[in-house]
């Protein structure tokens, strides 16, 4: 196939998964997975719950070993013995919740596991200075680096983890559903940093179940379903509508709409005149809570 535009690079892949499979006892969580990750590209891995996305990340990040196939980093077959080995090989992972230690300060988190030392102690001044500079470079304004990370918004936390990965020289950055818990505005911020990483020449693996987010930044799309790759396409081979359709699962939607055929989806049910308060109240409370949560998330960034 010819290279027609700038949506793909021609360099050798930094990370190659060939026929990768993973069994957990009787559960065949992944099988026959082929993925190429290139520097300067965003590779999106999409799939529903149970598709095998986390298993895939854990293999690349050194948490689990694969049981079938081969994984090559820079052309060399690799089995990571631990996450630390994967990290020192240039693979950084930004986990959705575990990205940072919530009770530690921003600068402490930035250097966690890579502290700058001075004599027998830590060079706190230097670490604060560098963390501040690096975050500023990424366009992140955090007035007080001594604040615990738990005081920051979800988007800010993701971005700190991203800045850290770039600073410590990662070649490949894996992001596990970084936008899943975020509102629209904060998701936009994280997506912008995904592009920054691409522009910095990193190989980015963006795990998501949101085809819209994927299509905003992705060069290459892989959909997993029940542990297998069901779609593998470059941007120039696929429209957003096709990606969304594949994710929604055309066939399954058709079956679902058949099942719901008698459900009358447009119907509006007026509130019962009295005695129904017990049933209605919890629903309202849940809605109100969701709204509040959303407001909280949209507050900063
Ligand atoms: N540690 C484990 N032990 C046994 N089964 C697992 C384990 N982790 C995941 N699985 C199974 O593997 C399949 C893929 O899971 P996972 O990789 O978490 O998917 P996703 O992240 O796409 O939701 C699921 O059927 C899940 O139940
Ligand atoms: Mg998962």
TrEMBL record:
Q: What is this protein called?
A: Sugar ABC transporter ATP-binding protein
So which domain of life are we looking at? Bacteria
Question: What UniProt keywords are attached to this protein's entry?
Answer: ATP-binding, Nucleotide-binding
Q: Which Pfam families match?
A: ABC_tran
Keyword ATP-binding listed? The answer is yes
| ABC transporter domain ranges (all copies) | 15-251
Gene Ontology molecular function, alphabetical: ATP binding
> What is the protein's species of origin?
Phycicoccus sonneratiae
- List the InterPro entries: AAA+_ATPase, ABC_carbohydrate_import_ATPase, ABC_transporter-like_ATP-bd, ABC_transporter-like_CS, P-loop_NTPase
Asked if Ribonucleoprotein is a keyword of the record, the answer is: no
């Amino acid at each position: 196939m010819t290279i027609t535009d700038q949506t793909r690079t021609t360099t050798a892949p930094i990370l190659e998964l060939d026929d990768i499979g993973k069994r957990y006892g009787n559960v065949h969580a992944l099988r026959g997975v082929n993925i190429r990750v290139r520097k300067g590209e965003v590779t999106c891995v999409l799939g529903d719950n149970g598709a095998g996305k986390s298993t895939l990340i854990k293999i690349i990040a050194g948490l689990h070993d694969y049981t079938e196939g081969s994984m090559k980093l820079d052309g060399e077959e690799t089995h990571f013995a631990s996450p630390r080995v994967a990290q020192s090989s240039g693979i950084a992972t930004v986990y959705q919740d575990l990205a940072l230690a919530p009770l530690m300060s921003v600068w402490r988190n930035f250097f966690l596991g890579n502290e700058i030392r001075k004599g027998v102690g830590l060079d706190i001044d230097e670490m604060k200075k560098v963390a501040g500079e690096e975050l500023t470079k990424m366009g992140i304004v955090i007035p007080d680096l001594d604040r615990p990370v738990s005081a920051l918004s979800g988007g800010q936390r993701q971005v700190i983890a991203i800045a850290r990965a770039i600073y410590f020289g990662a070649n490949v950055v894996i992001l596990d559903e970084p936008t899943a818990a975020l509102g629209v505005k904060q998701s936009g911020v994280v997506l912008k940093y995904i592009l920054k990483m691409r522009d910095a020449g990193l190989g980015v693996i963006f795990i998501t179940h949101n085809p819209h987010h994927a299509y905003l930044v992705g060069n290459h799309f892989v959909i997993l379903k029940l542990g297998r790759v069901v779609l593998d396409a470059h941007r120039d081979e696929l429209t957003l509508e096709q990606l969304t359709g594949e994710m929604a699962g055309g066939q399954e939607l058709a079956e679902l709409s058949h099942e719901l055929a008698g459900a009358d989806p447009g119907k509006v049910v007026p509130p019962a005149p009295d005695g129904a308060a017990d049933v209605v109240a919890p629903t309202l409370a849940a809605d109100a809570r969701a709204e509040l949560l959303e407001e909280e998330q949209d507050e900063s960034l």
